[in-house]
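Thread: quick sanity check before group meeting

JM: Hey all, I'm pulling together slides for Thursday and realized we never actually wrote out the predicted structure for the chain we discussed last week. Dropping the sequence here so it's in one place. If anyone has concerns about the input, flag it before I start.
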Amino acid sequence: MRYVAAYLLAVLGGNESPSAADIKKILSSVGIDAEDDKLKKVISELNGKNIDELIAEGLSSLLLHCVSKKTTMTFYTITSMHMNPF
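JM (edit): ok, ran it. Output follows.
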């Protein structure tokens, strides 16, 4: 998560395509030593993608999951009440 957060901080700072060195600099500023394998993974997954669109997609997926879960719980509660009203 810290690697994604550092990547997002770089993007928010105006760097549309942060390098490994950029992310390492951000992480080291708060005392974190970056692991190269994790850093490469984050960069390969996010580089060249529109961060705003990724966040919007993630948010809509999260909301869809929450609504779906709430609907399931509501259905379960209603069904349980009909089966055992007391």
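AS: nice. The CA atoms of residues 80 and 86 lie 10 Å apart. The mean pLDDT is 82.
JM: adding both to the slides.
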